[in-house]
From TrEMBL, chain A:
Gene3D superfamilies registered for this protein in UniProt: 3.40.50.2300
Domain Leucine-binding protein span(s) in chain numbering: 32-391
Protein name: Amino acid/amide ABC transporter substrate-binding protein, HAAT family
Alphabetical list of InterPro entries matching this protein: Leu-bd, Peripla_BP_I
Entry annotated with the keyword Signal: yes
Alphabetically ordered keywords of this record: Signal
Source organism per UniProt: Paracoccus alkenifer
UniProt-listed SUPFAM superfamilies: Periplasmic binding protein-like I
Residues of the signal peptide: 1-25
Sequence similarity: Belongs to the leucine-binding protein family.
UniProtKB/TrEMBL annotation, chain B:
Key words, A-Z: Amino-acid transport, Cell membrane, Membrane, Transmembrane, Transmembrane helix, Transport
GO BP, sorted A to Z: amino acid transport
Identification of the protein by name: Amino acid/amide ABC transporter membrane protein 1, HAAT family
Family: Belongs to the binding-protein-dependent transport system permease family. LivHM subfamily.
Length: 432, 327
């Protein structure tokens, strides 16, 4: 009986410890992770990078501005319903920012965070037109978005073809979901502008592992290039099928969610030469890693033991955490207090100025382009570079500098979309 | 003429894809045949088998992350690699062990329960095995190589090019999958028709009580059937894992087996193959001809529509046992 009581007490104590909310003085920045389910291979590295950056700040600096950052994790399995449940359950802990790491979840949370007045950060994903701060007061997607990515892919291909894509056939192989459909409108506009033929080829998420129909079509139509907007198993399956059908991998270019180690490893040598965009660097060649080693890794504090350190998705999680921390820092500066609220952090996100000098101070010189936001512009520069996979060295190597998006096309589309959203939802435009 | 050649290429590839679907469906059929249980965990069994195979092949330490978290020791690898054939045999043994555990810990306690209870138990089993696989071998994507060739078959391309003026694409992995599936089906049919255990399995499938009354051990039969289903899952895991790497979405291939089962019948081994072929060809042809008119990505839902169409005329599936209920 006594033993049973001890066991019960131990179970209760463990459960209490696991469920314990952040200490009252902590600033809460939840980690919407997905370490289980079909997208676990993508979710785990991102979540680790996010955790490790905040662990570093807590261990080295005592948090941000003296405020420790609590990072409670909530498992979404990359499932929209679960993501919304996570949001509802974490709301009680007064998070200062929400970063859901899923376009589906982000779409569902836009009305909720707007009503609850909590800023939402969706770097490189989510609703593209949320870049328009006049309409989307509580949403930020700097440094770039899906439409920027589409236009950068075309800019890169223009450079490859001496500035002329007239008469070329470019296929868009996309995940048939809110995420995958995002670039279509932009690419349609760009096809009119540059005179290339756009072939849209959807892949149903439920059939992502079996893309024979799509690749037989590509084999028949022989597009000059394939732009890949895939996620999860769709990416390795597409790259493997490209190798199987002998489509030249260096004529394929993926969005940043199709440009990670997870996507190319399964195809082995067949993936060599595949290209993808990125809005940040990867690898450990940044001074920040010295501090991470001293204060996090060597102390055994690396998230999940550190199996993904330096990978593309780990770096992306770290980048998201870095921008969030800088927004908190800016909020503290603007509000004149360290214990900032969610509304004040929103102000911080809107006044971000992460210059190249600041990136160097953070030990991340050259890691990403500078980020500057404003009341109207929640999206930053929109810049991204193109990198190429070296299968023998198992590394992604940048092959271009950071490109600016085609703002003439993208900005007009964003304004049209966000203003339509404002009209539909009776939102008065801000920033006048 | 070009359209006809393209359509022929689509049909051939549809047949090959159908074989891949059938490999997954076979596991479902075996368990349903012997116990009347729809095994929701079949897709996860394929994932678990593939993860275990790679783990053994690469000398990965199981539960390395857990060991590291508890003891602080970082033991990722034993430092050896195991040849593919031996690794497959060892994985098959692991699947037998798993079958024994499933019988002892789950099925034994549910004898005589309604099929829906057993079905619910397999849902729980699916989630448990997915978590166990993650804990044992990690969530990262793994490349599976057991020496099976993959990619365009140049022989077929050259031959069809000289015959028709258009070189067909056929994946060499699909050719191997067809050969392996044929051997597997022939072996399973021979086993169930001509061996004592096979006949016992069929007796259990016909009537549990009657089989028990003549001395057939229900527990042994269940272990045997789950072991065979585990082996079939291993084969499916190898083929699909070689195709697109081993990661947790591999368990979703079960979704492609459902319309195959609806069409072929839940109790027929040849039905799984024929169902797979019809689904494979049907969905590919529909995508080829109708897909462009409706925006593409039709395969996922069309497979179910096709299966439902067949069900209107044969509710028990093409090869399923006819259900006669007398009032």
């Amino acid at each position: 009986m006594k033993k049973r009581n001890i066991r019960l007490f131990a179970a209760f104590a463990t459960a209490t410890a696991l469920a314990a909310p952040a200490a009252l003085a902590d600033l809460v920045v939840p980690n919407f992770s997905y370490r289980t389910g079909p997208y676990a291979a993508n979710g785990a590295p991102y979540a680790d990078g996010f955790n490790d950056y905040f662990t570093l700040l807590n261990e080295r600096d005592g948090g941000v501005g003296g405020q420790k950052i609590a990072v409670p994790e909530c498992e979404t399995s990359y499932n929209t319903e679960k993501g919304v449940e996570c949001y509802e359950s974490l709301k009680g802990q007064n998070p200062v920012v929400i970063a859901p790491v899923s376009t589906g979840i982000a779409y569902q949370l836009i009305p909720k965070v707007s009503a609850d007045k909590i800023p939402m950060y969706t770097p490189g994903f989510g609703r593209t037109s949320a870049q328009d701060g006049r309409v989307f007061e509580w949403v930020f997607n700097a440094p770039t978005n899906y439409w920027d990515g589409a236009s950068i892919a075309i800019k890169y291909l223009l450079d490859e073809h001496g500035g002329d894509l007239n008469g070329k056939n470019i296929a868009l192989l996309y995940h048939n979901s809110a995420f995958g459909k995002e670039p279509i409108r932009t690419l349609q506009e760009l096809s009119k502008k540059h005179g290339f033929k756009l072939t849209e080829i959807p892949v149903d998420p439920g059939s992502s592992q079996e893309q024979k129909s799509q690749w037989l079509q590509i084999r028949r139509e022989k597009p000059d290039h394939v732009i890949l907007y895939g996620w999860g198993v769709m990416n390795p399956a597409a790259i493997q099928e490209a190798a199987n059908t002998r489509y030249p991998l260096d004529q394929m270019i993926g969005i940043w969610w199709s440009g990670t180690e997870v996507d190319v490893m399964a195809a082995g040598a067949g993936a060599n030469g595949y290209k993808a965009m990125a809005f940040h660097g990867s690898g450990r060649d940044y001074p920040l890693y010295d501090d991470l080693k001293t204060h996090v890794f060597d102390k055994g504090l690396a998230s999940q033991g550190g199996p993904h350190i330096g990978t593309v998705l780990y770096s992306r999680g770290m980048h998201s955490a870095m921008v969030t921390a800088e927004a908190i820092r800016k909020a503290q500066e603007l509000a004149g207090t360290d214990a900032v609220t969610a509304a004040q952090v929103r102000d911080g996100f809107e006044a971000l100025d992460i210059s190249d000098e600041r990136l160097a101070e953070l030990g991340l010189s050259g890691f990403s382009p500078a980020i500057k936001t404003s009341c109207e512009d929640h999206g930053g520069s929109g810049m991204a570079l193109v990198q190429q996979w070296d299968a023998s060295a198992k590394t992604w190597n940048p092959i271009t500098d950071f490109y600016e998006p085609d703002n003439d096309v993208v900005d007009a589309l964003i304004r049209a979309d966000s203003e339509a959203f404002a009209k539909e939802n009776n939102i008065t435009l801000r920033c006048d | 003429m070009d359209q006809l050649l393209y359509a022929s290429e689509v049909v051939v590839n549809g047949l090959m894809t159908g074989v891949m679907y059938a490999l997954v469906a076979l596991g479902f059929v075996l368990i349903y045949k012997a116990s009347g249980v729809f095994n929701y965990a079949q897709g996860v069994l394929a994932l678990f088998a593939a993860l275990t195979l790679i783990g053994i092949q690469q000398g990965q330490v199981p539960f390395a992350h857990l060991i590291s978290a508890v003891t602080g020791m970082h033991l990722d690898s034993f430092g050896w690699t195991v040849p593919s054939l031996l690794a497959i045999l060892l994985t098959a043994l692991v699947m037998v062990g798993l079958a024994i555990l499933i019988e002892a810990l789950v099925l034994k306690h549910l004898v005589g329960q309604e099929p829906i209870i057993l079905f619910m138990a397999t849902i729980g089993l699916a989630y448990f095995l997915e978590g166990l696989g993650d804990l044992m071998w990690g969530a990262s994507v793994k490349s599976l190589d057991v020496g099976l060739p993959q990619g365009l078959s140049e022989t077929v391309e050259t031959m069809t090019d000289s015959l028709f003026g258009y070189g067909f694409f056929i994946d060499r992995l699909d050719i191997w999958a067809t050969v392996i599936a044929a051997v597997l089906v022939a072996s399973l049919v021979a086993f169930s028709q001509y061996t004592k255990q096979g006949r016992a399995m069929r007796a259990v499938a016909d009537d549990h009580q009657a089989a028990l009354s003549v001395g057939i051990s229900l527990r042994f039969i269940w272990v045997m059937v789950w072991s065979i289903a585990g082996f079939v899952a291993l084969v499916a895991g190898i083929m699909w894992g070689t195709k697109s790497g081993v990661q947790f979405s591999l368990s979703l291939i079960a979704l492609k087996a459902l319309p195959v089962l609806m069409l072929g019948g839940f109790t027929s081994i040849p039905g799984a193959i024929v169902g797979g072929l019809i689904i494979g060809v049907g969905e590919k042809l529909f995508e080829f001809y109708i897909g462009p008119m409706v925006g593409g990505a039709t395969e996922n839902w069309f497979a179910y529509v096709l299966a439902l169409l067949f069900l209107v005329f044969r509710p028990q599936g093409l090869f399923g046992e006819r259900i006669i209920e007398r009032v």
